[in-house]
Amino acid sequence: MNPLAYLTYLFEQLPNIDTTDPGELDKLLPWSATLPIACRVYNNN
């Protein structure tokens, strides 16, 4: 996980979603498959 990219994405998305909907919040969790690739760091091993 790229912490800076993840936090930037999180703070950009939070004001625009329905925070009362758990499904919408689940999409923002660090292990969500819907996060942008820029937020991920892949292991080359």
Mind explaining what this structure looks like?
The protein has about 45 residues and is mainly α. Helix content is about 35%, strand content about 0%. The longest helix is centred in the first third of the chain and has 11 residues. It is elongated, with a radius of gyration of 11 Å. This is IS66 C-terminal element.
The count of DSSP E runs of length 2 or more, i.e. the number of strands, is 0
| Largest sheet: number of strands, sense, barrel closure | none
pLDDT < 50 stretches = none
Structural class: mainly alpha
What percentage of amino acids are in beta strands?
under 5%
The DSSP helix count reads 2
What's the layout of helices and strands?
Blueprint: H1 3-13, H2 22-26
Features:
45 residues, elongated, 36% helix, single chain, mainly alpha, 2 helices
Concise summary:
This protein is mainly α and 45 residues long. The protein contains two helices and no strands.
